[in-house]
Specification:
2 copies of one chain form a homodimer.
Chain A: H1 14-25, H2 27-39, H3 46-57, H4 66-77, H5 86-95, H6 103-115, E1 119-124, H7 132-155, E2 164-165, E3 168-169, E4 174-177, H8 191-212, E5 215-218, H9 226-238, E6 247-253, H10 259-273, E7 277-282, H11 287-297, H12 307-323, E8 328-333, H13 337-350, E9 357-362, H14 367-375, E10 379-386, H15 389-404, H16 409-415, H17 420-423, H18 457-471, E11 476-478, E12 480-482, E13 485-487, E14 491-497, E15 500-510, H19 513-532, H20 535-551, H21 553-564, H22 568-592, E16 596-597, E17 604-612, E18 615-619, H23 627-638, E19 642-646, H24 652-664, E20 672-674, H25 679-687, E21 694-698, H26 701-712, E22 723-727, E23 732-736, H27 742-754, E24 764-770, H28 771-787, H29 806-822, E25 824-828, E26 843-846, H30 853-856, E27 863-869, H31 872-880, E28 884-885, E29 887-891, H32 895-904, E30 909-912, E31 929-930, E32 948-956
Parallel strand pairs in A: 1-4, 1-10, 4-5, 5-6, 6-7, 7-8, 8-9, 9-10, 11-15, 18-19, 18-21, 19-20, 21-22, 23-24, 23-29, 24-27, 26-27, 29-30
Antiparallel strand pairs in A: 2-3, 12-13, 14-15, 16-17, 17-32, 25-26, 28-31
Helix pairs in contact in A: 1-2, 1-4, 2-3, 2-15, 7-8, 8-9, 12-13, 18-21, 19-25, 20-22, 21-22, 22-23, 27-28
Chain lengths: 968, 968
């Protein structure tokens, strides 16, 4: 291997080498380059290519040293920046790693490998599968590939040398399959359904493979799919039809902390099944992604933090595999010479025939290592992706990253010129780098509550049990809670399960005006004393409430499922957000509780602190039935105010549960009082009351404007100008640019539009798509929408459930009928035939004119209006043509268009290249302006200030001409 | 001197020494001890003494080491903490430094000094002189003292040895006079009047001194009085009556940077006058005070920063004095052996007879040095304060500070045991300590505009000239300014000088509804473009406006004097505040202009930034005619909004001047538009307009509530919920505790109640005085009020001027008449008999019941209601019994009562032990709640957020599983 020539890739000659070297030196350039490479295949005109090239890699965008620029020019690569040949050059780059899509070319390349004594496995590259038709297409492509290669491969004699194993010849035809491409609706709460659907699409492939004597490998993808992949593997190969064949195997990733347990389990399974399977041990290609996602979710990071740990684990697992040579075949996927040598050494020590196992390497990489492996008589298989350039870009970028990584073996050897000793060092002897402290928060110790990982079986069981337990306890009467005492009423309103209107979740007390007055008196009486409780102690109450919510998490979720029709993950997110509000506002109040110096002045102390406003009413909606009422209530209360909580008529039982938790946490009488009853009488009476100081409202624009107006009137005897925190609706828009990553855009738009049936103020309801992509995108979008699973929220894996109530159902259905007159009905989903449930079929209108009602009014249901824009400026202008300004989004890979949207899109929360719902406390302070609200930000640092008034204390500390040092 | 016993003070034996040692070790204890000593004389019961002792020096208040506590006990001082003898012990302490008030005792002590060959000068200690009767009393006491001592001293033969000079015997009787005690209304703008009044009271004293052959010395006090003292000295001793006598001298302070020039000037004067005067060279006793005050005002610090610089300067000036021995007599006031030795060395070198000059030292200090000086045959004079214990406390605290200072010679020698070499080191050779960087501001570079120092002659001249120049230019027509163009109207309203209703300052255009609509359209059209101007560049416009205001400062002040009737210092403060608003909001906007990370998340960037609200109207009052309109306008504009400015009908010309300056600074057309005209039509039309986004209002509660209500209504076509920044009135209260420092309380209350005739929303209008002090305080207060100078604002030194208009005058006079029926008219001032001016006599009502109208309603004029409280709790409860919550204050020296007020007094701006008006930008963010406003804080960091809406941008920066390090 040492004798072999440095591969062209690292020769520092030519276009490609120069780029790689440059990327390795300059992180910013690397990012820009890879992002450009990523978007390139979608660009259809040379004009678009030039524009993106300049936006990513123009002189203003990337700062590179003169030497580098000169070096690049000298490498004769200068012209690439200006010529039109860039696309073909990048295609050339990609072709180093992929076989392309032309059957003839594929066969030629495979033949060439054959002549080099190298075996192969082929993998079909594909766009992300976002709908069931796409999954069908993907499955079909495997069948086609098997047919194509089955014909060709059978012609070849003698069989490839690398397919000659110690136990006899191996199948000449070897395919690798990604299970994520075989089902579009994998959902963490429902792996069983996923296995069923995947199995349905796998069977024809396995059948054909069996017929052809081909080998089928299951690739391993992201950690979230790992257990599902293992389960699918075991399930299908236990089916009698496949118990005897085809030959099969699966990949395991050594970078996973779980990998040892998984490997042991698979080896046990093989032993039990008495079936020889192949385990392809790889290191893992999604390290960045896994790390980022785990950090974002506050989940345990599934991968080892250090490359050396992965290398060491790979060596341990290699040894285990070789030790189990009698049960499993081993394939070692690595380009690391140390890892290879380690395998060989273990094999020798254990007396395992060197042809009993194989090495696998990626097509287009590590040629000298491949030659060396073949030279010493080992078996070698190349992993060969086939497919279109566009879907292959993700694969290309991963390869480029690998080649420019500071940790990859190849880059270390060729680009950084690391010596033999360093390259072959025992990974156990490599010291871990000093640990970096966790990112510091500004002034407080808040951390978001993690969402539940429903891929964990125990979590799914807990949820199922909670729903069952709750169902046994439904239908109770929920009294008012005034001064910490239950108060019953004459009237009671049932709260019904949206998925089953004959199921009464509970009965809500209906307060009279007198009882509302009593609640107000209780709050008023309690307020001065509560205000004197130290901010620190008030914060502790909130943290106690958070702890109680964590204790009751599954139960609270179950209640949301049955009362609000939220599916498991939506309910879980809502409860997590409620916990976040408690903890975050507690942290913020601890900070606000400390007076802040305004200016350092000699002889005088000047500090600002905050006082509570007094007594408020909390008027909450049903769509985030726990989180929003909790956020508004805890913010007001931790600030030293007392409140009357008036939950929505649709979710009174959840609202009451919050108040009960407040009481359980030990809040003194009168601090939080529960009033349920009709908003038009009881709510309006409280809002207009002269003894009320503030109102926190989240709900419809209609009610919000009435409250705003009512609060404007200052009545005799009123203590304060009434403050209103008013969060209303949205008519939120996403722009899909012509260069958007459609895989991501489809998924993000579907989730934003139809998540919780579109009943979120943040929901997507106007989708503006640029002409270039319009038809293609709309087709994929509709197919994806059509693949969504519809059913009651309690059923795990239900994405679309019923809307909140019969009234809402009728209202939205009527809107859809009206909409049909205004725009083209592009698609309407089907829903279960259940007269007891409040289903509304999810609906997409296309070519919706900006003037139409569908484009302008909030619907608050699963109805999406899609509009075409001729260019980005028009798209932006359409986006901003709204009375609302709540959320907005844009999918684009044009840095300038992204900058334009950041500068100009009129909304309170803007999301770039992701969905527009699911704001996280502290991370995405939430709220809008125009007719969407007063410009407050729930979950933001300034939110508590809405419930406080500032007060400045100035103390002259100069006495007799003397000011102590500490006070001056 | 070395041979002499360590003086008892530093013997570390006994009560006093232990305290001093403790104080020197522990800064906190020192502060608490001195504050206790300060308040002690006012405490009349042993209960009160015990309470204060615990509040200041209880175990929870001062942390002292066990060793110290033990040491104190061992020093047999333990009992003082618990016994009732504390007052007599402190009195004993005081008596070490003061002669007391008993003629017999005074004479005894002076006789004792006489026997020790020590001369004396006596000084009458007194409370601060806050009224003219007090100044009369003080002058009388000098006459009495001269009579008393004249009789006694003439008896003594032979004359005291220290009064035997080289040029013959010196007067046996020597008195030191503080000029500040001879006139209560010294005002920086008008030194001439002060000199006149001081001279009037001096003449009888000088006459008597001349008759008695006594010597009169002018003491030197704070720097602000220095020039006045020098001027008074020169003026009176140039009068023919005193040209020949009495013998006289004055003190000069070597710590002043000015002292060299002043000394030269006085020596020249003496030479010119051919009159031998004595210059007493001291180092200066107000170093802390001068430093603090200069820092607070951003004025040049008048004193040397380092003690060594002062010592060096003392040596230089000593030499100069000795060099001018033929012109002046020298007295060296110092306890520093090095300074003394330096004098002697110079005298020897220059051949000055050692009995041609004298040393002066303080009674009760430095006994060993005194003995040494006498032993070597020098003349020695002791400075002997006589008077009551209470007024002497300031003097005592200064002495205690001196004895515990880290820099004093005596403390260095005795308490810290510094060696001879260190003590006698040449001050020029002492290295300066490393310079401490200026206090850092949080994230921006704002500094308050200094007030004008009118003690500087040039500043007074500039102001006089500006008024003259303005008067030549009055009576112009001020058009509207729309889209940067002048627009004339059909109607014009004259704006009149409150002090002369026949003087028209200018004519304000009276806009029609159509013109208001034009202004709105202009603002609307300009807004989107203005919003796109970078925050940084918008901030620069404000800084430009500030620069223009600085350029026009005197002119703007003059305009306020004539149009608003503000006196010089009030006008100057208002213009400085306007400049502050520009600079401060610019600094805050630069900061807000930077998006802020909300949370650090892998793979995603999340930041919050701010967008302008749109178009607003600024409705401004007349009482801070430039500052408030500037603050509201610049805050709105720098935030990216466009505005219509509607100044008050009373001060339209000043309002227009602001808009003109905005235009001069280059603000684009339509950004700031000027509309003048009737609020009830034009103002109301704008406020209710659906195309308006926000209103910034400062004014009356009546109008404020109407605006609040109007803004609550959201009309069709309206873009946003209307935001109102609403600052209204106050009914502000000060509590005067039974232990308050009345010297300070009287001055602070008078300024707060009657500054600008009480026409400030922050003005004091309810004064709640504890029973114990009620009569005494009220008497001093009335006397002080009665001493205020009333006259037109343009007259320098006028404290009370006319109220803003004829209407206001009639309204307030009517209120006073009504008030007479509700409460006791305690005092009413007199005003100039000028029918053309709008004077209202300042008025104090006493025993005002809390139920009365006078106690509850805002008057906005020079009317003060005084109410009696039986204890502090009642006082606080009375204070909080108000519909308003703007400013509040308390004068107290009880730490617990101060803490109580800080916790409980309901107001937006609380001031402890100082006046309650004059909030400074950034230092005292200003605004209140309840019926005083919406809880906004002008001049605070959060203020700009009222004119902005927050927006959060979330960008997914994970592409193809890759997130660049810089974005994750």
């Amino acid at each position: 291997m040492e004798a072999a020539e440095t591969p062209a890739l690292f020769s520092k000659k030519g276009f490609y080498g120069a780029l790689m070297e440059w990327a390795m030196r300059d992180e910013r350039f690397k990012t820009q380059l890879f992002r450009f490479v990523d978007v390139l295949p979608t660009l259809t005109s040379s004009q678009e290519i030039t524009r993106h090239l300049n936006e990513y890699l123009g002189e203003e965008q990337v700062q590179i040293s003169a030497a580098l620029r000169l070096g690049l020019k000298a490498a004769s690569g200068a012209s690439w920046l200006f010529g039109g040949g860039i696309k073909s050059q990048v295609t050339g780059m990609a072709r180093q790693f992929m076989l392309g899509n032309d059957p003839k070319e594929i066969i030629e390349i495979l033949l060439k490998l054959h002549k080099q004594d190298t075996a192969f496995t082929v993998d079909v590259l594909g766009e992300a599968v976002v709908s069931e038709p796409e999954a069908d297409q993907y499955a079909q492509r495997y069948l086609d590939l098997l047919d194509l290669l089955g014909r060709e491969v059978s012609k070849r004699q003698p069989p490839c040398k690398s397919n000659q194993g110690s136990r006899g010849p191996l199948p000449a035809l070897n395919v690798s399959v990604k299970l994520s491409a075989l089902y579009s609706q994998v959902h963490p709460t429902d792996p069983k359904t996923a296995v069923r659907h995947i199995s349905q699409r796998l069977r024809p492939i396995l059948r054909r493979a069996k017929e052809l004597g081909a080998f089928v490998n299951f690739d391993m993808e992201s950690y979230a799919l790992k257990d599902l992949t293992l389960e699918s593997f075991r399930t299908i190969f236990e089916e009698s039809e496949f118990a005897e064949g085809p030959l099969c195997g699966l990949a395991l990733q050594a970078y996973l902390r779980d990998s040892k347990a998984d490997l042991h389990r698979m080896v046990d399974w093989a032993r039990t099944q008495n079936r020889r399977i192949t385990v392809r041990l790889v290191k893992g290609a999604y390290w960045d992604y896994e790390t980022v996602m785990a950090h974002q979710r506050h989940w345990p990071v599934p991968v080892f933090a250090e490359k050396a740990q992965t290398d060491a684990n790979f060596e341990k697992l290699s040894q285990f595999l070789l030790e189990n040579d009698r049960v499993v075949d081993s394939a070692f996927g690595t380009h690391n010479v140390r890892s290879i040598a380690n395998v060989l050494a273990h094999a020798e020590r254990l007396g395992v025939n060197p042809r009993a196992f194989e090495f696998q390497m990626l097509y287009g990489m590590a040629d000298s290592i491949k030659s060396a492996v073949l030279q010493i008589g080992c078996r070698l298989r190349e992993y060969c992706p086939v497919g279109e350039l566009l879907p292959g870009m993700a694969y290309l970028v991963r390869r480029l990253l690998e080649n420019t990584s500071n940790e990859g073996f190849l880059a270390n050897k060729y680009a950084k010129g690391a010596g033999r000793e360093e390259l072959l060092k025992n990974p156990l002897e490599i010291p871990a780098p000093p640990s970096v402290p966790a990112p510091a928060h500004a002034g407080h110790e808040f951390q978001n509550e993690p969402l539940t990982d429903f891929t964990i079986t125990k979590e799914r069981e807990r949820m199922t049990q909670a729903i069952t337990a709750l169902r046994d306890d439904l239908g109770r009467r929920q009294p008012l809670l005034i001064n910490n005492k239950a108060v019953t009423t004459a009237e009671w309103l049932p709260s019904l399960n949206p998925a089953n209107q004959s199921e009464v979740v509970g009965y809500a007390a209906q307060a009279s005006i007198t009882q509302a007055e009593e609640a107000l008196s209780a709050a008023r009486a309690a307020q001065p004393k509560w205000a004197r409780v130290a901010a620190h102690d008030r914060a502790e109450f909130l943290e106690k409430i958070a702890t109680l919510m964590r204790r009751d998490k599954a139960g609270l979720c179950a209640l949301e499922v049955l009362e609000a029709g939220k599916n498991w993950t939506e309910a879980d997110a809502d409860v997590a957000e409620a916990i976040d509000f408690c903890d975050f506002y507690a942290a913020v109040m601890r900070d606000l509780g400390q007076p802040k110096l305004t200016q350092k002045v000699a002889g005088e102390t000047n500090s600002q602190h905050w006082l509570p406003r007094g007594v408020g009413v909390i008027i909450a909606p049903w769509n985030f039935p726990l989180a929003i009422v909790t956020g508004m209530t805890t913010a007001a209360v931790v600030a030293g105010n007392t409140v009357i909580v008036k939950p929505s008529d649709q979710t009174p039982i959840i609202g009451a549960r919050l108040v009960s938790l407040c009481l359980e946490a030990g809040l003194p009488p009168g601090v939080v009082n529960l009033i349920t009853g009709p908003g038009s009488t009881v709510g309006a009476h409280l809002v207009g009351h002269p003894r009320l100081d503030f109102i926190a409202f989240t709900g419809s624009k209609e009610v919000g404007l009435k409250i705003w107006e009512s609060a404007g009137r200052t009545l005799p005897g009123q203590r304060d100008l009434k403050k209103v925190v008013c969060e209303m609706g949205g008519k939120n828009c996403i722009i899909v640019d012509s260069d958007a990553d459609l895989d991501e855009a489809v998924v993000g738009c579907i989730a934003s539009a139809f998540g919780y049936q579109g009943q979120k103020c943040s929901a997507l309801s106007r989708l503006i798509v640029l002409e270039d992509n319009y038809d293609k995108f709309l087709n994929r979008l509709i197919a994806a929408a059509d693949s969504l699973r519809v059913g009651p929220a309690e059923l795990p894996g239900s994405i679309i459930g019923p809307v909140i109530s019969r009234d809402a159902q009728q209202r939205i259905l009527a809107i859809i009928e009206t909409g049909k007159k205004e725009a083209k009905l592009a698609w309407q989903g089907s829903v279960p035939d259940n007269a007891n449930a409040c289903y509304v079929p999810p609906t997409i209108f296309a070519d919706v004119p900006a003037s139409s009602w569908l484009f302008r009014e909030e619907i608050f249901g699963p109805v999406l209006a899609v509009t075409r824009a001729k260019d980005f400026d028009e798209a932006l202008s359409l986006a901003n043509d709204s009375d609302f300004a709540l959320t907005g989004g844009c999918y684009s890979r044009s840095p300038e268009n992204i900058a334009l949207v950041k500068a100009e899109m009129v909304c309170g929360n803007l999301y770039i290249n992701r969905g527009i719902t699911g704001a996280v406390v502290e991370r995405q302070p939430f709220g809008g302006f125009k007719m969407s609200g007063g410009g407050t930000k729930a979950g933001g640092r300034e939110y508590l200030e809405n419930f406080l008034v500032p007060r400045v204390i100035t103390e002259n500390c100069l006495r007799r001409g003397f000011a102590p040092a500490e006070e001056s």
